[in-house]
């Protein structure tokens, strides 16, 4: 199936970064010029809303709607807070996800241009890119791109004579998965522990340093220049169904040709898998996590699922980051779940009890099952955790996310998991268990 | 107001509150950990799960955390819900996966919130089979013990320490199920309010090390309602004892003073009560200068001789002793021969403070009220060192701006992290002028460092800027005038401005300046408040006793009108320079001292010593800095012949043939009130000794008080009859009436069914959680409005050249607590401080000794550079290391 290259159109085959001259030659910063000259600051947001752009970080919240929550100070400049912030979430740490990295390494100006337009649209004067610590190449390329943009007058004071000012700063994360949660990201950016914040208040009301803030994912922001440049109708036409635009899909795991590819939203799961060469070594698909480690399993029966927000939702999972982790039919599911839960247990920030103390227990039960030390009742205990680590019961979405694949695993592979409990296993007393089970 | 339903019962509640607070106020048993009435909600522990229903049709409902749920109108909630109860029990099971279950050896056992909550949720059976994670503990100094394995990661400690007390050296470290609450390395906590961690921690991670040193369970303690004697604020305490040993000081909730928190001096400073060197027998100094014990009969004979032969007695009272003790002394020596025991400058400043309070009787801020003020001017006081608890209140005052910003953004006041996040560094304005840098400077706008006269002048100038009929001071330079104008404008623009001043610099002009500023402010704003701090626990009470200062006592001896000094719980060497005291003592034929500690006066000057009880061994009334008379009660009966100071004074009067016939506290209080109508209110500070509820006294011990019978089993298997308290309506046992309707001033400890921890059990005695005590917060305000006084003249005493100013330290400057082992460990090394220029002028390399003569008394301490000090100003460590009787501020000539 042919790719629809929009966000990846300038990415070189050899991955050499597109610097500013090439970027401009290939149509870059035209959208910025257009936004600043043809649209007032409050007119870009509605355009994005109309285009139906949804957050590419995984939650799929409509971007234009998010921007519309930002307080406006055009009519009351006296009340304008010291700063209004745009924060780009480049802390790409979802297991199996590496799409933002490709953009930031290969086409950093696309992100910069998108940020300038987005900041203009929400009235921000300061922007941060909160970037994953390990993304050293991205950091280098982005910093150079920022400097180049500054030198050309795309950043700084009075951008292109419009009177609009913006500064962009890079912030290298010290490295925790939870920093990808937007409110934890803000805490980290303030120099505090990366603990999520309760909503409300939402960042638009009280965000970074207590000021109005919008947090967007890298890929989301990169859509903005294309919408401004080519219009809403064009953008909507890129998708196969209701959701407009393209999405960078990825595949890792047991596929023949792992990597990234860009398709219009709504492409069939089977077609995406086929693009990545299908299951390697001639094996069959056992299941896949369609959008990163925290999205519930899809199985061979879901190959016709349209890969857009509603389509994957209807199949019982989430589009997430659309970078799938694929497992062949010889993969023991308990190992998959154990690895995932190990990751989520380790990455819990430790703030709320269910997540902090529940996830390690889940992990230990899965280790026990894998090592043949399961006991009657373990499956039911896992069910209980799925229930009590669900949305609303924990402080943020981390633990419910961790329960996504576990819940689907218990649903689709229950017999396989139950069979891991030895037939002669009995419930041990705590003392017996402690002696027999030195985890 | 909101109309809500909880478990089918309907309530009209405050819609600005969260559901957990409301449920607790309404008496529901809803378990919680991370929430605290002063720290509010963060939703971390997930323990207070309840079921919330959207509307009447909603049958499914959803589980929400009560602490994060606003009480909006029409809300329908179920605590008694299967799914919510399952969640609550499961949270305990999760917490217990790593908890060591070491209750039998844990100091928290018996007053552990975690034990209570575990029981409340019904979790009993452990299903987790894995190993527990363990931690290494830290040595946190002499106050607090650290046992991290018990931690359930509720984050209360860091939220209290960092977000409430503004401390920095306790952090949450690590992550996931390996969060560690500790310091970067071993060492005592830097913050002066660290001891509250002991009560804030819901389990045994942070425990009281001074209790641990001679541990027993809460249920085995005999307590009494206490008043802290280590500064003038009158924080309410609950001292706990067993078998005549004072075990610990715990917070006793008072809705207008300390509410949930104490300072570390108050909490850990009571160790002096247990010292071995205390006088416990009557003592007489022999020809060799050694104090010898006497039995009571011999002592009576001795005192008969002494009193028969005396040509005149002069009494030295004490601003740290109760009104009763002082009054009994006054009765003994005669009204004309009683002195307050305060130094002349302390008395002058205290009287100025009293006058300021009288001028603004309607505007005296309680400690609690300080927290609600949105602009503050502190004149002269380094409150963290002189009246520590108010520093913690001022730290809350600065957060009013956070609450304002939160309200503008519709963030409820209880949403602690959101309030903090939006507040950031936007504080309510606090201005302060002190002689040197203080521990409050981090929240002060442009802290001013001036000599005492400069501080007074600044205050007068602000008063003048607020009201130009207030006397002006000399021409100020432009910068100062701009600052004065900005402070005045800020105070004027505030909803509830506050002026804080005190007597610690010994300069009445500072109090006069505060008085003027207050008068100027109050004319335009009825909400303006005044807070005056005094030197000691009963300074204001003594100022109200209308007696001359200690000078008169010294003069009486010096000029021979008296030959016998009678001292009540005071140390002469703290009130005047050593040379003067030595001369007076030498000239006096007798120095009779009634005291509880081996201070310098007892050790070096006394000819006769009568062992008086400390606060723990006596009842009495103290008047705090707001003029509130409060009663403290005897915690335990000391071994005879030790007895209350007032009983010794009464016995001496009897020896002199004038037995006042006071059978108990009621009699002496009646006598005081008869002599001092202004003190009439002390009668109502607590119920009379004959007061009973349903015919019952009020217990000093919890009803589970164990081993009362076994304690003396080796002597007599039968139970000994508890001693009957002649002075108060309290019993020396667990018998009596405890609970609803008990006068709050008689509440010796906090307990209620299912709630054993101090900070949680008190809820059942409050009108609403965190509010006031049912029946009214204890104590009676004595200050009555004086006549409307004119502005004070803007007179200051200027010293040319070098000036010595006092430098206080929370640990050491107060003489009683300095004798407590734990406090002594934290006492700083003595230094003189000057600024860099000063060190250069003196030609002394910092670290080398400066020898300084003040008031004829010479001390040599290392010189330390403090760049904040004004020029030619030497900060002198007072109250410790022998520097106690000097008169400061004073001009000096360093050589």
From TrEMBL, chain A:
Output this protein's name: NADH-quinone oxidoreductase subunit F
Q: Does the keyword RNA-binding apply?
A: no
Would you identify the family this protein belongs to, as annotated? Belongs to the complex I 51 kDa subunit family.
> Which Pfam families does its entry note?
Complex1_51K, NADH_4Fe-4S
Query: What is the uppermost EC class here?
Result: translocase
Q: Which GO terms describe its molecular function?
A: 4 iron, 4 sulfur cluster binding; FMN binding; metal ion binding; NAD binding; NADH dehydrogenase (ubiquinone) activity; oxidoreductase activity; quinone binding
According to its UniProt record, which cofactors does this protein need? [4Fe-4S] cluster; FMN
Function of the protein: NDH-1 shuttles electrons from NADH, via FMN and iron-sulfur (Fe-S) centers, to quinones in the respiratory chain.
- Spell out the NCBIfam families in the cross-references: nuoF_fam, PRK13596.1
Keywords for the protein's UniProt record, in alphabetical order: 4Fe-4S, Flavoprotein, FMN, Iron, Iron-sulfur, Metal-binding, NAD, Oxidoreductase, Quinone, Translocase
- Give a yes or no for keyword NAD in this entry: yes
Q: Which residues form the NADH-ubiquinone oxidoreductase 51kDa subunit iron-sulphur binding domain?
A: 334-379
Catalytic activity line of the entry: a quinone + NADH + 5 H(+)(in) = a quinol + NAD(+) + 4 H(+)(out)
Q: Which domain of life is it from?
A: Bacteria
**PANTHER family given in the database record:** NADH-QUINONE OXIDOREDUCTASE SUBUNIT F
Give the EC number(s) listed in the UniProt record.
7.1.1.-
Automatic annotation (TrEMBL), chain B:
User: What processes does the entry annotate via GO biological process terms?
Assistant: ATP synthesis coupled electron transport
Name all 2Fe-2S ferredoxin-type domain ranges. 1-83
One Gene Ontology term of the molecular function aspect: metal ion binding
TM spans (from-to): none
Task: Name the SUPFAM superfamilies for this protein.
Answer: 2Fe-2S ferredoxin-like, 4Fe-4S ferredoxins, ADC-like, Formate dehydrogenase/DMSO reductase, domains 1-3
Residue ranges occupied by any 4Fe-4S His(Cys)3-ligated-type domain in the UniProt entry: 83-122
E.C. no:
7.1.1.-
Q: How is the cofactor bound?
A: Binds 1 [2Fe-2S] cluster per subunit.
Any Pfam family matching the protein: Molybdopterin
Subunit text: Composed of 13 different subunits. Subunits NuoCD, E, F, and G constitute the peripheral sector of the complex.
**What does this gene product do?**
NDH-1 shuttles electrons from NADH, via FMN and iron-sulfur (Fe-S) centers, to quinones in the respiratory chain. Couples the redox reaction to proton translocation (for every two electrons transferred, four hydrogen ions are translocated across the cytoplasmic membrane), and thus conserves the redox energy in a proton gradient.
Give the similarity note. Answer: Belongs to the complex I 75 kDa subunit family.
Q: What's the protein here called? A: NADH-quinone oxidoreductase
């Amino acid at each position: 199936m042919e790719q629809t290259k929009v966000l990846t159109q300038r990415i070189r085959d050899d991955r050499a970064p597109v610097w500013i001259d090439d970027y401009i030659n290939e149509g870059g910063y035209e959208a910025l010029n257009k936004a600043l000259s043809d649209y007032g600051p409050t007119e870009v947001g509605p355009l994005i809303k109309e285009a139906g752009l949804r957050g590419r970080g995984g939650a799929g919240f409509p971007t234009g709607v998010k921007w519309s929550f930002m307080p406006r100070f055009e009519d009351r400049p006296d009340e304008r807070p010291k700063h209004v912030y745009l924060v780009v979430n480049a802390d790409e740490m979802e297991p199996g996800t590496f799409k933002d990295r490709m953009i930031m390494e290969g086409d950093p100006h696309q992100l910069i241009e998108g940020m300038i337009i987005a900041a203009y649209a929400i009235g921000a004067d300061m922007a941060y890119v909160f970037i994953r610590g390990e993304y050293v190449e991205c950091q280098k390329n982005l910093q150079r791109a920022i400097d180049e943009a500054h030198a050309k007058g795309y950043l700084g004071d009075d951008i292109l004579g419009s009177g609009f000012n913006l500064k962009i700063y890079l912030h290298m994360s010290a490295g925790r998965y939870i920093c990808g949660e937007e409110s934890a990201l803000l805490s980290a950016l303030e120099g505090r522990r990366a603990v999520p914040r309760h909503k409300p208040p939402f960042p638009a009301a009280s965000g970074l340093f207590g000021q109005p803030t919008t947090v967007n994912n890298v890929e989301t922001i990169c859509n903005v220049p294309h919408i401004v440049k080519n219009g809403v109708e064009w953008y909507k036409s890129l998708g196969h169904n209701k959701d407009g635009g393209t999405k960078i899909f990825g595949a890792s795991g047991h596929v023949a040709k792992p990597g990234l590819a860009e398709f219009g939203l709504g492409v069939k799961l089977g077609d995406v898998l086929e693009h990545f060469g299908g299951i390697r070594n001639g094996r069959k698909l056992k299941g896949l996590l369609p959008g990163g480690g925290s999205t519930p399993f899809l199985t061979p029966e879901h190959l016709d699922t349209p890969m857009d927000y509603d389509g994957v939702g209807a199949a019982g999972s989430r589009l997430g980051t659309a970078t799938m982790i694929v497992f062949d039919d010889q993969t023991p599911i308990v190992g998959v779940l154990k690895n995932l839960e190990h990751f989520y247990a380790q990455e819990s920030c430790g703030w709320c009890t269910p997540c902090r103390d529940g996830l390690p227990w889940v992990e230990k039960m899965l280790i026990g099952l894998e090592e043949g030390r399961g006991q009657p009742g373990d499956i039911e205990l896992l069910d209980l955790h799925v229930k009590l680590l669900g949305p609303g019961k924990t402080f943020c979405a981390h633990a419910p996310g961790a329960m996504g694949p576990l819940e689907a695993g218990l649903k689709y592979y229950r017999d396989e998991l139950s069979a891991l409990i030895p037939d002669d296993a009995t419930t041990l007393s705590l003392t017996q268990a402690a002696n027999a089970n030195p985890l | 107001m909101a109309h809500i339903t909880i478990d089918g019962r309907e309530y009209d509640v405050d819609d600005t509150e969260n559901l957990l607070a409301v449920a607790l106020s309404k008496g529901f048993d809803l378990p919680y950990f991370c929430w605290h009435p002063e720290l509010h909600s963060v939703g971390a522990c997930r323990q207070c799960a309840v079921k919330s229903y959207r509307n009447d049709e909603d049958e499914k409902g959803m589980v929400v955390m009560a602490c994060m749920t606003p009480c909006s109108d029409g809300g329908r909630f179920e605590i008694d819900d299967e799914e919510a109860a399952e969640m609550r029990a499961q949270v305990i099971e999760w917490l217990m996966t790593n908890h060591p279950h070491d209750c039998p050896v844990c100091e928290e056992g018996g007053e552990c919130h975690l034990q209570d909550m575990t029981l409340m949720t019904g979790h009993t059976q452990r299903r987790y089979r894995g190993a527990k994670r363990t931690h290494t503990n830290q040595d946190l100094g002499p106050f607090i013990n650290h046992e991290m394995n018990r931690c359930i990661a509720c984050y209360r400690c860091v939220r209290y320490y960092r977000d409430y007390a503004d401390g920095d050296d306790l952090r949450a470290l690590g992550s996931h199920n390996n969060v560690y609450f500790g310091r970067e390395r071993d060492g005592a906590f830097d913050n002066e309010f660290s001891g509250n961690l002991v009560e804030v921690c819901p389990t045994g991670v942070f425990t009281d090390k001074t209790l641990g040193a001679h541990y027993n369970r809460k249920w085995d303690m005999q307590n009494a309602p206490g008043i802290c004697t280590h500064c003038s604020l009158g924080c309410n305490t609950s001292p706990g004892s067993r078998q005549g040993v004072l075990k610990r000081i715990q917070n006793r909730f008072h809705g207008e003073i300390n509410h949930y928190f104490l300072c570390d001096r108050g909490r850990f400073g009571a160790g002096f009560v247990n010292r071995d060197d205390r006088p416990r027998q009557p003592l007489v100094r022999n020809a060799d200068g050694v104090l010898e014990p006497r039995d009571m009969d011999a002592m009576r004979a001795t005192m008969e001789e002494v009193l028969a032969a005396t040509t005149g007695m002069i009494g030295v009272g004490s601003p740290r002793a109760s009104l009763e003790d002082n009054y009994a002394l006054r009765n003994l020596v005669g009204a004309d021969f009683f002195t307050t025991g305060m130094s002349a400058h302390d008395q002058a400043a205290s009287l100025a403070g009293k006058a300021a309070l009288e001028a603004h009787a309607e505007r005296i801020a309680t400690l609690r009220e300080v927290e609600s003020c949105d602009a503050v001017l502190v004149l002269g006081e380094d409150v963290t060192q002189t009246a520590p608890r108010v520093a913690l209140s001022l730290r809350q005052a600065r957060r009013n701006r956070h609450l304002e910003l939160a309200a503008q953004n519709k963030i409820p006041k209880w949403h602690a992290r959101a309030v903090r996040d939006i507040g950031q560094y936007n504080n309510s304005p606090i201005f302060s002028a002190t002689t040197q840098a203080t521990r409050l400077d981090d929240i002060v706008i442009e802290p001013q460092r001036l000599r005492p006269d400069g501080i007074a002048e600044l205050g007068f100038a602000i008063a003048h800027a607020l009201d130009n009929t207030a006397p002006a001071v000399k021409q100020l330079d432009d910068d100062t005038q701009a600052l004065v104008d900005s402070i005045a404008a800020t105070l004027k623009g505030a909803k509830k401005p506050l002026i804080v001043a005190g007597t610690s610099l010994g300069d009445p002009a500072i109090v006069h300046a505060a008085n003027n500023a207050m008068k100027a402010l109050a004319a335009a704003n009825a909400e303006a408040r005044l807070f005056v701090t005094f030197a000691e626990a009963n300074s204001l009470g003594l100022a109200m006793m209308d007696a001359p200062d200690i000078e008169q006592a010294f003069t009486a001896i010096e000029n021979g009108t008296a030959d016998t000094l009678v001292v009540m719980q005071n140390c002469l060497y703290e009130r005047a320079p050593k040379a003067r005291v030595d001369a007076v003592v030498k000239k006096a034929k007798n120095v009779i001292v009634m005291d509880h500690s081996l201070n310098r006066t007892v050790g070096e000057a006394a000819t006769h010593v009568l062992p008086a009880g400390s606060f723990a061994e006596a009842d009495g009334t103290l008047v705090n800095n707001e003029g509130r008379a409060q009663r403290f009660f005897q915690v335990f009966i000391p071994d005879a012949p030790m007895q209350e100071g007032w009983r010794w004074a009464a016995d001496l009067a009897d020896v002199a043939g004038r037995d006042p016939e006071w059978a108990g506290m009621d009699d002496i209080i009646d006598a005081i009130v008869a002599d001092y109508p202004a003190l009439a209110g002390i009668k109502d500070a607590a119920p009379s000794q004959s007061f009973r509820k349903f015919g019952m006294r009020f217990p000093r011990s919890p009803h589970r008080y164990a081993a009362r019978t076994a304690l003396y089993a080796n002597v007599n298997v039968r139970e000994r009859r508890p001693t009957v308290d002649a002075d108060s309506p309290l019993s020396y046992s667990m018998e009596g009436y405890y609970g609803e309707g008990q006068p709050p001033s008689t509440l010796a400890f906090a307990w209620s069914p299912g709630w054993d921890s101090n900070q949680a059990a008190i809820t059942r005695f409050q009108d609403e959680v965190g509010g006031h005590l049912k029946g009214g917060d204890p104590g009676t305000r004595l200050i009555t409005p004086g006549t409307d006084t004119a502005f004070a003249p803007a007179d200051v005493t200027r010293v040319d050249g070098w000036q010595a100013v006092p430098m206080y330290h929370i640990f050491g400057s107060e003489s009683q607590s300095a004798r407590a082992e734990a406090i002594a460990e934290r006492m700083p090394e003595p230094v003189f401080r000057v600024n860099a220029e000063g060190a250069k002028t003196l030609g002394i390399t910092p670290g080398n000794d400066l020898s300084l003569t003040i008031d004829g008394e010479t001390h040599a301490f290392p010189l330390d550079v403090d760049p904040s000090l004004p020029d030619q100003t030497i900060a002198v460590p007072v109250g410790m290391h022998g520097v106690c009787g000097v008169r400061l501020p004073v001009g000096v000539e360093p050589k």
